[in-house]
Amino acid sequence: MIALLAIGNELLNSQVKDENISFMIRAFSEAGFVIGEARFIRDEPQEITRVIGELSSRYEYVFSTGGVGPTHDDVTMEAVADSFGVDLEVNQDYLRFITKIYGCQVNDSVTQMAMIPAGSKVIVESGIHWPIIQIENCFILPGLPEAVLDKIPRIIRLLPKKNREVTATLYITVDESFFASHLSELQLRHPEVDIGSYPFLRSDSYRTRVTIKSRKPEAVRELLPCLEEYFRNQGWLAGVDFPE
To answer: What crossing angle do the helices spanning 145-158 and 20-30 adopt, rounded to 10°?
Structure first.
């Protein structure tokens, strides 16, 4: 499982609408990763240090966004360094990249952006892509949505491949309360799949979506006919979608 962390006062006082968490959830899920949790926290160094430490000890990977710029409220790098018990240091690879981008406009604030946790891996690729910064199992990303949109697909290509979930969806014409107990019994008998039920009020043709998800396609294929038969016999089945 992985964890996602969005850092920034502006996200929690409605100054800025977050776009990164929803994008990362979709991108990582489609790549086969399971998201254990996603959090929003403020630009408070001690809290960032605490949360990074907690998440990095519980999850395979942690991805943070925000707080890596050159201004006074960009405190993520220092807080992450504290979390892993290291100092900040100027990374020469990162400094060379920033110097190339900014040229004669380099100043102390820009150079400060090259101060990252000691021992971090700086993944520099060709072109103008900003480097990816990783310390142990934590990836430190900027908060700018365009940057996250650029970096996440690149990170996914670097990580070990995961088996993607296979999903079948049944569209049911009645409220989920009519069949909740039946789904509960099925879930107990089929722990290898994740059965979900979701009310849907914006359609005239169905009232509930029932999903079957698993990283084992054969488990979905085995259970789907049973659910189809059950809902069809009740007269509640509006349709089935199973794009393998």
So the answer is: 20
Q: What is the DSSP letter of 77?
A: H
What are the tokens at 176?
């989920």
**2-158 and 166-241 in the same fold:** no
Residues 143-200: tens digit of each pLDDT: 999 999 999 999 999 999 998 889 999 999 999 999 999 999 999 999 999 999 999 9
Conformational region of residue 127, where left means phi above 0, alpha means psi within -120 to 50, and beta covers everything else: left
List, for residues 32-44, the tens digit of each pLDDT value: 999 999 999 999 9
What fold is seen in the domain 2-158?
A: Molybdenum Cofactor Biosythetic Enzyme; Chain A (3.40.980)
Q: In terms of DSSP H, where are the helices of the chain?
A: 9-12, 20-30, 45-58, 76-83, 92-102, 108-112, 145-158, 180-189, 217-234
Q: 166-241 has which CATH code?
A: 3.30.70.2860
Answer yes or no: are the C-beta atoms of 157 and 31 closer than 8 Å: no
Which tokens in the block code for residue 159? 């990580």
User: How many angstroms separate the CA atoms of 214 and 221, rounded?
Assistant: 10
